[in-house]
Hints:
The structure is a homodimer.
Chain A: E1 13-17, H1 21-32, E2 40-41, H2 45-48, E3 51-52, E4 55-56, E5 61-68, E6 71-78, H3 84-92, E7 95-102, H4 106-115, E8 119-126, E9 129-135, H5 137-140, E10 143-149
Parallel strand pairs in A: 1-6, 7-10
Antiparallel strand pairs in A: 1-7, 2-5, 3-4, 3-8, 5-6, 8-9, 9-10
Amino acid sequence: MNNGILGTKVITQIGLLVHDIEKVSQAYAEFFGMEKPAWFWTDTVDKAQTEFRGASSEARAKLAFFDMGSLQLELIEPDRHASTWREHLDAHGEGVHHIAFVVEGMKEKISLMEGKGLKLVQKGEYTGGRYAYLDTFEPLKVMLELLENDK
Amino acid sequence: MNNGILGTKVITQIGLLVHDIEKVSQAYAEFFGMEKPAWFWTDTVDKAQTEFRGASSEARAKLAFFDMGSLQLELIEPDRHASTWREHLDAHGEGVHHIAFVVEGMKEKISLMEGKGLKLVQKGEYTGGRYAYLDTFEPLKVMLELLENDK
């Protein structure tokens, strides 16, 4: 055995698409007895450098995070611009969008995955790191997100 | 704040429905550098006492588990009998079916949830414990599974 393509198998996040982040955040907070976190917008394209299917996109999303044990549950309410979030929400409705893994060497990981025919769907920057979604649905039955945080 | 309805917010499992558990197990094993676990059938109805929407069901599924950090990823290939697994797979295709939580006092937890209008969808026994799926899709955008293990 080896460490696999990602060098990790620790799921750090489950991402869910929702239509109304306020309402779903409230439901989670009540059901699990947690404080309702404040949601925030992802950065604008000048800062996030968002690319969806190879093209720059102004897409943004409202995000809210809940600590659920050793991983985070992420709620995502996308805007109307083109993104994997909007595409998935329109095609499949609300529900799970991805599971995420923290990696080192984002570029190399993406190259390794592309070498296996797994397509980069979307990528972008956030304060302190960057993310990439890859279409792993055919082999793994769920989309993966890679997260790389600056040291 | 309180501890919420379940008394826990630790996600212990993510369950995915698949058409071919052998194939998807192999893909996970290769991608993440893990050993391919042996899948196994859930118990027959005499032992599992499976109930789906209030009626006894002979439904069974092949299950395989992968340790992915502090939680397990569960692959589920259902048979043709009536179950939440078969229903969800037929309606939505392959992908995430539920997230699971280990609880104490299964009956009480189910009652509390039913009191909030959340319906019990399926329940059953396994060696060393029992499970219940509840339809939490409307508020939480994903189905929950409760697991209770004998002490």
